[in-house]
Every structure is written in C-alpha cells, then in structure tokens.
Amino acid sequence: MSQKGNILVTGGCGYIGSHTITCLLQDPKYSSYGVVVVDNLSNSSKISLDRVGEILGFSEEEKNEKIKFHCIDLCDGEALEEFFKEYSSFEACIHFAGLKAVGESSKKPVQYYDNNITGTLNLLRLCDEYDCHTFVFSSSATVYGNDNPMPLTESSPCNLNNITNPYGKTKYIIEVILRDLYSSKKNSDWNIALLRYFNPIGAHPSGLIGEDPNGIPNNLMPYVSQVAVGRREHLTVFGDDYDTHDGTGIRDYLHVMDLAEGHTSAISYMKAREGGLYTFNLGTGTGYSVLDMVQAMEKACGHVIPYKVGPRRAGDLESIYADPKLVEDEMKWKAKRNLDDMCRDLWTWQSQNPNGFPNED
Known about the structure:
By secondary structure, the chain is α/β, with parallel strands linked by helices. The protein has one domain (6-352): Rossmann fold. The protein is built from twelve helices and 14 strands. The strands form four sheets. It has a seven-stranded parallel beta sheet, sandwiched between helices. Strands 12-9-14 form a three-stranded mixed beta sheet. The protein has a two-stranded parallel ribbon with strand order 7-10. Strand 5 (134-140), helix 7 and strand 6 form a beta-alpha-beta unit. The protein is globular and about 55 Å long.
C-alpha cells in the first residue's frame, strides 16, 4: 500500500459492505482513496451505494468518482479478469461476497460450496497476479463449530466435522486456503486478516442504509424489526428450555458500524506491517438472549412485539459469545456501541424503509 489508489470491495452493495465503504471514505486515512465495488446484486441493491454517497454528502459527480460499481459474479472468471485488467492493481481487497444463509446452505450445499469457494479462488488468483496482497476476509464465528467452551477465543479449536452447516464450512475452507496461500509465500508482502464476525445488527444512524434481506429473514433481528414495523405477524422463538436466564439462546450481537470500523482498523493494522496472517474475533464479549433482544427492540420501537415459542431448531447452540481481548490488545479495535444503540439504529432504518430499499426498476 505504498501509494494512494483504489480499495476493492467485493459484495460492497450488501449490508456489511455498504457500511464498511461508508467508514472507509469517512476515515481521514482513506478519504483520498477510491472504492471499487464488485457485486452480482443477488442479495443486495445498488441503491445502497447511492445512499452511501448521500451519507457522505457527495454530489452525483463525486459519488461516481469515489465509488465505482461493477456488476460481476466472482464465479465468472473471464469477466473478473477483464475487470482486473482495467484497474491493473488495488491497494487492498475486502472480500464480503458470498452466499450467507445458514439454513439455505443445508438445503443447497453444492451451490454454497461452488459459489463461495470458487468465487474466492478466482479472486485470489487475480489478486496475486495483479499485486493486490493486502486482503481482508469476511469470516464467521461459525467456524468454531459446536463443541467449544465459552467465550470463544481465536485459539478455540476449529474442526470441520463440528461445523453444523455448509455455510460455516465454506468459511472454514476459505480460511484454510488463505493460510495455505500465505504459507506458500512467506517471504512475500502478503498481509491477510481473517475477521470472524459474531452477530452484526443495527444500521447507520441516518437510517439510509441497513440490512435488507431477500424474502423471509434468516437472522433474528431483521425478523424482529419486520414484525415491529408490521410486515410480519409475529416472531417464532425457537426453544425456551435452554439453560440460560430466560430459557432462550444467547448470542454476541455487535453494531454493524463497529464491525465496519473493524475493517478499516484491520487495513491500518496490516499497513503498518510488512507481511503476516492475522485472525481476530469481532464481537463484544457480551451475550444477550432472544428475549433480551425482543425487549430491547420493544424499547426502541415503543410497542409490544408479538412472539410465539416453538421447538428448538436442529443445530442451534445454547450460547455463543466472543472473547475480544486479542483484537482489543493487538488491533486496538473495540465495539463501542451498546444494545440500545443497536436497536435504536435498526428501528430508524426499518421505520424509514419498511419494505427495504426501493426497487431499482
């Protein structure tokens, strides 16, 4: 990263990608950079980039100069290579693109393995060929599997056989590929960050960008917010007989803006180093139950959110939360926003955009 240029963001029109682009272009260290987005729009909207420009106060001309968009599927190796030829090189790549629904991955495993792994392999070949050796990978706490004591540290065992769904397995396999890539080029300038996310929620406080899943949401809080805004009748809580304070499952939720800032921190951390491979948990270290989250959202929206209790789902774990000490000590990143902030900003987004982003037609 010797000169100012472009940062490649795959999947940049999506939930975490759009918030990360906002953070990058607001950060004085990167405000002179351009962002180039590659996204196939399979589960995202190009309107998110227009909203990012609005948040940043860009004119249409400034937005088109600072944020360039290319509709490309990473699995289309020829199209991706033509794209790399156009730009010659990038200062860094942040790789978000991929299928991400845990439940769907169990129904369509081949599609998930093909899309997530093939797309990443195409991307890595071209990053290497075109000298883009600073790489941030959007990984997941799902790589830890189902048999670890809490809290999860970066040294908690990862065992492919204990990962409960194909989505998590694709993340693990890509981590293995990246480790092998780094090992094969130890004397090079490759810098790779594996960022293992816990449960991002919330939205930009402006309400202009947020999570807009296709169809029925797979994650808890988008579903809760759609019930709150009247799009869905009620929430189903999957199990209330866990060994927790209220019987419902516990997860580590973090604000998407904190998560986005984790990516800028990762690039800065690696920029100060000549080469390395780094693994970090991005979480708060605090677990909240499903009913804790419902109550927090009720506080944010000002009314009761109806729910019913259903049976446990196969593969769901009782409690998952991070130990964020390593990332706090090493990368100097820490989640700053609390549960009230998460739910307030989620409600601002959902209430202003009850049906998500408008259609682009």
